[in-house]
């Protein structure tokens, strides 16, 4: 497999914002992801009241599912439009707070559920700002990260992990010569070396 064709590709934050503005958001799943339902038990591992992190969250409906189950959800997303659509589409009230540690960032805090969404770059977060997490739902996240940033991304996720955390990762398998991505093709061998 030749993943070389994708390794130099960079999608800028501006390009992501434009996708949201133009409605080019085919990655969004109205019905939620079947794999989260399938592997929910693995994520929860018999625990309740978890802190669950959604990197590069978009307006993933799974954030509401998990909050409705009593977990507390934290997401991060560069597009404020995406986050506002999330709250609007679920009729969830929220308030906006500045994030003093990150210049230009905002936190959109749901006032009826435990859902806190940071509007900033994923790379601006740290465990001192967002805390650590018991569970991770990584769908459209690692595979959306620019290939050159993968190690940085995974290293950050590791710093956000609580002891005994579980990490659900969804990847896509296809011939990287036939599609430029995102989503990018991340071979299993690379996953193993990234996450150790
Ligand atoms: N996980 C979501 C969205 C996947 S698409 C889902 O399952 O539907 C990837 C998302 O990451 C886009 O909404 C894009 O705006 C956002 N994004 C891209 N780079 C980012 C970054 N550096 N920090 C935060 N969000 C980012």
UniProtKB/TrEMBL annotation:
One Pfam family named in its UniProt record: TPMT
The organism of origin for this protein: Centropus bengalensis (lesser coucal)
InterPro entries: SAM-dependent_MTases_sf, Thiopurine_S-MeTrfase, TPMT
Methyltransferase recorded as keyword: yes
Membrane-spanning parts: none
Record keyword Transmembrane helix present: no
Family: Belongs to the class I-like SAM-binding methyltransferase superfamily. TPMT family.
EC number: 2.1.1.67
Leader sequence segment: none
Recorded catalytic activity of this chain's protein: S-adenosyl-L-methionine + a thiopurine = S-adenosyl-L-homocysteine + a thiopurine S-methylether
Recorded name of the encoding gene: Tpmt
Keywords: Cytoplasm, Methyltransferase, S-adenosyl-L-methionine, Transferase
Molecular function per GO: thiopurine S-methyltransferase activity
Compartment annotation: Cytoplasm
Main subcellular localisation: cytoplasm
Any one biological process term the GO annotation gives: methylation
GO CC aspect terms: cytoplasm
Protein name: thiopurine S-methyltransferase
């Amino acid at each position: 497999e030749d993943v070389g064709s994708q390794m130099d590709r960079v999608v800028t934050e501006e390009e992501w914002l434009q996708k949201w503005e133009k409605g080019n958001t085919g990655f969004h799943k109205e019905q939620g992801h079947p794999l989260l339902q399938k592997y929910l038990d693995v994520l929860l591992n018999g625990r309740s009241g978890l802190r669950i992190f959604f990197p590069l969250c978009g307006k993933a409906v799974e954030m509401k599912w998990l909050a409705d189950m009593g977990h507390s959800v934290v997401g991060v997303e560069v597009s404020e439009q995406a986050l506002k659509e999330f709250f609007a589409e679920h009729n969830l009230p929220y308030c906006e707070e500045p994030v003093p540690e990150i210049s230009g960032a905002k936190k959109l805090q749901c006032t009826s559920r435990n859902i806190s969404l940071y509007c900033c770059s994923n790379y601006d977060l740290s465990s001192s700002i967002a805390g650590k997490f018991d569970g991770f739902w990584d769908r459209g996240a690692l595979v959306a990260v620019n290939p050159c940033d993968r190690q940085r991304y995974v290293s950050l996720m590791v710093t956000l992990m609580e002891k005994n955390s579980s990490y659900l990762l969804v990847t896509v398998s296809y011939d990287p010569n036939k599609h430029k991505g995102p989503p990018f093709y991340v071979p299993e061998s690379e996953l193993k070396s990234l996450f150790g």
